[in-house]
Automatic annotation (TrEMBL):
Gene Ontology CC annotations of this record: plasma membrane
Keywords: Cell membrane, Membrane, Transmembrane, Transmembrane helix
Subcellular localization(s) per the UniProt record: Cell membrane
Protein family: Belongs to the UPF0126 family.
Membrane topology label: Multi-pass membrane protein
Residues passing through the membrane, by range: 15-34, 41-59, 75-91, 103-123, 184-201
InterPro entries on file: Gly_transporter
Classification of source organism: Bacteria, Thermotogati, Deinococcota, Deinococci, Deinococcales
Protein name: Uncharacterized membrane protein YeiH
Origin superkingdom: Bacteria
Source organism per UniProt: Deinococcus hopiensis KR-140
Keyword Hydrolase: no
Signal peptide range in chain numbering: none
Ranges where the Glycine transporter domain occurs: 17-90, 103-178
Length: 217
């Protein structure tokens, strides 16, 4: 009996650990932006937490899972606060490295999009619903972060750096892998797809078309 239970427990722990890693990554991403904007400690912690749990809260609300997961399991908030504290303490060093900020953001995007996709699959959504829920889970916190920091959300104009599209593709990857591999492997595959597309777009090898209209006058 213990042998039969052990794989399930290990799987749940693995998925939970990936979720928390995404929370930490997104929290540090948002908190580092707050440090760059010269927010005080409270502002840094708020922006870090909003970035970390905002997307998941939107996803849970849309799928009727209320209250959102971060309120049902405060571990998510504690990890988000930890990321904010780390960014505040070492932000002066970390903010010098733009790649660090991008890395945290990409890791968080991939893990959250994949985890949102798994939640949507469990809820019984189809491929489009899974892609949409995973995308919202991945980009929702970042959009709220940019609005609070008085920045135009990148997903609205950075056609040369796939973001929301990468999140949707990662979520769809999870949907396609689900049933063929374990949920843990599906989540890793979806997150890996996001990271790959983000890398290709930053290298200039993948981008979305832009419709340009002639200038007035």
């Amino acid at each position: 009996m213990p042998d039969a239970i052990l794989p399930t427990v290990t799987l749940e722990q693995g998925l939970h650990a990936l979720d928390l890693l995404g929370v930490l990554a997104f929290s540090m991403s948002g908190a580092l932006l707050a440090v760059r904007k010269r927010f005080d400690l409270f502002g840094v912690l708020v922006l870090g937490c909003v970035t970390a749990v905002g997307g998941g809260a939107i996803r849970d609300t849309l799928t009727g899972q209320t209250p959102p997961l971060f309120l049902r399991d405060e571990t998510y908030l504690w990890v988000a606060l930890l990321g904010g504290v780390l960014a505040f303490a070492f932000g002066e060093r970390l903010a010098r490295f733009e790649r660090t900020l991008r890395l945290f953001d990409t890791v968080g995007l991939g893990l959250f999009a994949a985890s949102g996709a798994l939640g949507a699959i469990t809820f019984g959504l189809g491929p489009l619903g899974v892609a949409f829920a995973g995308m919202l889970s991945g980009v929702g916190g970042g959009v709220i972060r940019d609005l609070i920091a008085n920045e135009v959300p990148e997903i609205m104009y950075r056609h040369d750096q796939l973001y929301a599209t990468a999140a949707a593709a990662g979520a769809l990857t999870v949907y396609l892998l689900h049933g063929l591999v374990t949920p843990f492997q599906a989540q890793l595959g979806g997150a890996g797809m996001v990271v790959l597309l983000r890398y290709l777009s930053r290298r200039g090898w993948a981008r979305l078309p832009v419709r340009r209209l002639p200038e007035d006058g």
